[in-house]
Structure formats: structure tokens, C-alpha cells
Amino acid sequence: MLKPGDRLPAGQLYEYVDVATEGCALGPNVVDIAAAAAGKTIVVFGLPGAFTPTCSEKHVPGYIARAAELRAAGVDELWCVSVNDAFVMGAWGRQLGAAGAVRMLGDGSADFARATGLTLDLTSRGMGVRSARYAMLVVDGVVRTLDVEAAGKFEASDADSMLRRLREAAAA
């Protein structure tokens, strides 16, 4: 499993963009993980699935609500990663109002989840292999902190916990 001090695995995630911008065409865009993380401080949080209860009611909304505070604490970008395709992640992001706050990145084949060792097998519940619930602070592609939740828990990967860790690190 990925741990602090490790570099994010090479690979790709996918992002659906509603409005074309410089470098991003309308529709699904490939996000090269190494290139996107280079030179940036990023909070990457993973969760089991789009439109699922805890993810939709607490996890993503918390990061959207705290996005400005996290940026003020030195975070350049917030990435939500889930084992869903870019179209689903885009629709979910629109429903939650994530634009401008959180990048909604699809890991449709669970390649990133497997490469990090942060998988959750929900086959018995009809959901297949998914991402575990976690949050990590990544600086220039290197993991600085990683909090992985126990199955069914939501206690350490939330935005408030990440903000607290950032403030404690700044005060030290």
C-alpha cells in the first residue's frame, strides 16, 4: 500500500469538462497523474463511489465547503478520485456544485486504486472493486500524509481533519 514518502504511481485519471478551456477540450480528458501533480500541493481524497450516501452527503460536500480554507493553507488543488467513469464523475460534480472547488477524477478501471493498494472489494454488494476511503496530502507528486479509513468509517479522511493537519504542520 502507498505510504508517506512514496511517489504517486504513474498513470492516468479521467476528467469530464463541461466547458472547454485552454488545455482541456469539452468532454472526457486524460489527466496524466505525474504531470498534473508536478510542482503542486494537492489533497487527493478517494471514496467508494459516486452518488453513494456518505460520499455524496459528507465527503465531497465537506471538501467543497472547505476549499477556500484549504487553498489558504497552501493547497493548490483538490482531487476527488473514485472508481467511476469520467461521465459519472462529471455528472456527480455538477450535482454537488464542485466546479472550481474540487476536480472530480474518474478511475473507471480501478487502475489508480490498485496501483496505490487502496482498494475496497465490494463485490458481495454488487459494486465490484472500488477505492477505499482515504485522504492524502501530496507535494510535487510525493505523498506527505495518508489517512485510510476502516471499512464503513468516516473519521479521518474528511476536509476538517485535513485542514487541521495542515494548520498543525504550519504551526510546527
UniProtKB/TrEMBL annotation:
<keyword id="KW-0575">Peroxidase</keyword>
<dbReference type="InterPro" id="IPR013740">
    <property type="entry name" value="Redoxin"/>
</dbReference>
<keyword id="KW-0560">Oxidoreductase</keyword>
<keyword id="KW-0676">Redox-active center</keyword>
<keyword id="KW-0049">Antioxidant</keyword>
<feature type="domain" description="Thioredoxin">
    <location>
        <begin position="2"/>
        <end position="171"/>
    </location>
</feature>
<comment type="similarity">
    <text>Belongs to the peroxiredoxin family. Prx5 subfamily.</text>
</comment>
<dbReference type="InterPro" id="IPR013766">
    <property type="entry name" value="Thioredoxin_domain"/>
</dbReference>
<comment type="function">
    <text>Thiol-specific peroxidase that catalyzes the reduction of hydrogen peroxide and organic hydroperoxides to water and alcohols, respectively. Plays a role in cell protection against oxidative stress by detoxifying peroxides.</text>
</comment>
<dbReference type="InterPro" id="IPR036249">
    <property type="entry name" value="Thioredoxin-like_sf"/>
</dbReference>
<dbReference type="InterPro" id="IPR037944">
    <property type="entry name" value="PRX5-like"/>
</dbReference>
<protein>
    <recommendedName>
        <fullName>Glutathione-dependent peroxiredoxin</fullName>
        <ecNumber>1.11.1.27</ecNumber>
    </recommendedName>
</protein>
<dbReference type="Pfam" id="PF08534">
    <property type="entry name" value="Redoxin"/>
</dbReference>
